[in-house]
């Protein structure tokens, strides 16, 4: 499969994987609310946040390995040997450290005596899953380096489908949180088996690389890893610290309220993230062949697409958010509880999507240190502001403490630096990226307004949301496609001749 086909297959399977995951997670909300209640749902969210945060022990090596394998195939065996040893060591360390930290975590988040027993057992299971997930990051990175994102996406789909569907069945048959988490662990084993088997096909020595230790190669890899670690740490602080701050300073159910908002909005960033996974190795290939003109055009085109993509999805989520709350929370969370945080979260999600092309370009072009320092400063500013503002503004203060530093970094640091490095003017970027998103957005709003009479018909609310959402996104996307692509590109897309795309 050539590079273009891998690129497109990666995007399609990535979008499909995120779509399935989001749909299943949203389906889980009403079942969780009715069977275990808001407090247990909030505990579940907190536990998964701890699991996600533990993945920083990957130390960014996956991103460094992707970049290095994509550009230095001659040293592949040595890179694999060092990386495999690293992941085995870190995974075992994470497991032991996690188990030892359980009493501290129970105290930090003020877990009540009624919940302490189930929380303790849940953390034991989750740290087992976390260690396994850390180890399989190695095989995921190998597949990414070969642009075989479809296999990482399919393995995620297998994991989410198995864990959530079986979890739903367990909840509906009277089982609790522990049974759900045990199912996640089994699903994680299945995911690992898929990743390992596919990695063995492209790198047969991936499990037992035969190479001597090269100090210079190790130093170069660790140099990239340090910067990637700072970036990954900043992402985890920015995305997960809100949950921890809320759990530490506010009642536990507030974690669930905050999560509901971002559960829907994060669909946008998760889909964009799957697209961005494909960008990193593609940038590496283009820069390695010194195709600077193509890099510039790719940057503008992918930025324009992500802008329209994010705006259309965010518009629909905000438009239907009151209905979504009624449908999925069984009335336990009201729109009044979420309105302020929703208004703050929307620009944060949009800005996060728009920084992807810049961040991946800077990483691929050797600006890892700039990207790392910028990201880590932003993350700790996020932490500081959230800790300060939660005291006076509550849950809205946590959201505001996230928005301010993140938006500044995304738009005035990363995007600005990428434009300078690509010799692109700010005016051209604004016109070809943001300017091209105005008309599709206007068309989408018009479609939603025209469909308002559907609310007075005897149609289930969920079907109205689905129909109106598809029509508005389809109309806006079609406008962008016809006004911002060439006739040749449109013919290639609609005819399915992907190889004709340049």
Structure description:
This protein is mainly alpha-helical and 502 residues long. Helices cover 84% and strands 0% of the residues. The chain has helices at residues 3-35, 38-53, 61-71, 76-108, 113-145, 149-172, 177-202, 215-249, 253-288, 292-329, 335-354, 356-364, 368-393, 395-421, 426-434, 438-450, 461-484, 487-495. Helix 2 (38-53) runs parallel beside helix 9. The longest helix is centred in the middle third of the chain and has 38 residues, at 292-329. The radius of gyration is 23 Å and the shape is globular. 45% of the residues are buried.
Describe the secondary structure blueprint for this structure.
Blueprint: H1 3-35, H2 38-53, H3 61-71, H4 76-108, H5 113-145, H6 149-172, H7 177-202, H8 215-249, H9 253-288, H10 292-329, H11 335-354, H12 356-364, H13 368-393, H14 395-421, H15 426-434, H16 438-450, H17 461-484, H18 487-495
Q: What is the helix fraction of residues, given as a range?
A: over 70%
Portion in strands: under 5%
Instruction: Report the principal-axis shape.
Output: globular
H and E order: HHHHHHHHHHHHHHHHHH
Supply the number of helical segments: 18
The biggest sheet amounts to: none
Give me the secondary-structure category.
mainly alpha
Radius of gyration: 23 Å
Question: How confident is the prediction overall: mean pLDDT?
Answer: 83
The low-confidence runs, each spanning 5 or more residues with pLDDT under 50, are 496-502
As an assembly, this protein is single chain
């Amino acid at each position: 499969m050539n590079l273009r086909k891998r690129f497109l297959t990666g995007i399609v399977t990535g979008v499909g994987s995120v779509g399935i995951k989001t749909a299943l997670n949203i389906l889980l909300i009403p079942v969780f609310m009715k069977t275990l209640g808001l407090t247990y749902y909030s505990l579940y969210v907190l536990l998964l946040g701890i699991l996600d945060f533990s993945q920083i022990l990957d130390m960014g090596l996956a991103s460094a390995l992707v970049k290095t394998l994509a550009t230095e195939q001659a040293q592949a065996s040595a890179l694999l040997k060092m990386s495999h040893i690293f992941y085995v060591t870190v995974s075992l360390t994470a497991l032991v450290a996690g188990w030892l930290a359980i009493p501290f975590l129970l105290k930090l988040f003020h877990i009540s005596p009624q919940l302490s027993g189930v929380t303790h057992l849940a953390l034991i299971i989750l740290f087992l899953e976390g260690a396994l997930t850390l180890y399989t990051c190695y095989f995921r990175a190998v597949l990414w380096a070969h642009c075989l994102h479809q296999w990482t996406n399919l393995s995620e789909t297998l994991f989410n489908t198995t864990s959530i569907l079986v979890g739903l069945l367990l909840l509906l048959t009277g089982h609790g949180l522990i049974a759900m988490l045990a199912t996640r662990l089994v699903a994680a084993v299945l995911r690992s088996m898929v990743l390992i088997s596919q990695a063995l096909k492209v790198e047969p020595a991936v499990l037992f690389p035969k190479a001597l230790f090269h100090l210079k190669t190790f130093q170069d890899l660790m140099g990239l890893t340090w910067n990637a670690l700072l970036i990954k740490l900043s992402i985890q602080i920015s995305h997960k610290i809100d949950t921890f701050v809320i759990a530490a300073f506010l009642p536990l159910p507030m974690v669930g309220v905050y999560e509901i908002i971002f559960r829907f909005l994060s669909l946008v960033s998760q889909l964009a993230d799957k697209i961005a996974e494909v960008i990193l190795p593609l940038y590496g290939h283009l820069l390695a062949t010194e195709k600077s003109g193509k890099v510039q055009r790719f940057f503008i085109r992918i930025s324009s697409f992500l802008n329209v993509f994010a705006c259309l999805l965010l518009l629909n989520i905000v438009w239907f958010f009151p209905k979504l709350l009624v449908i999925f929370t069984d009335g336990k969370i009201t729109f009044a509880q979420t309105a302020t945080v929703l208004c703050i979260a929307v620009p944060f999600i949009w800005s996060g999507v728009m920084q992807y092309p810049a961040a991946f370009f800077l990483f691929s072009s050797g600006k890892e240190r700039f990207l790392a320092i910028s990201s880590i400063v932003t993350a700790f500013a996020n932490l500081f502001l959230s800790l300060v503002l939660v005291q006076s503004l509550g849950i809205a203060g946590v959201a505001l403490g996230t928005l301010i530093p993140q938006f500044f970094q995304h738009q005035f640091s990363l995007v600005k630096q990428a434009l300078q490095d690509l010799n692109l003017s700010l005016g051209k970027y604004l016109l070809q990226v943001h300017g091209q998103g105005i008309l599709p957005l206007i068309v989408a709003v018009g479609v939603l307004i025209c469909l308002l009479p559907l609310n007075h018909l005897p149609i289930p609310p969920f079907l109205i949301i689905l129909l109106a959402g598809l029509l508005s996104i389809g109309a806006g996307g079609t406008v962008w496609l016809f006004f911002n692509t060439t006739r040749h590109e449109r013919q290639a897309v609609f005819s399915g001749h992907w190889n004709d795309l340049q």
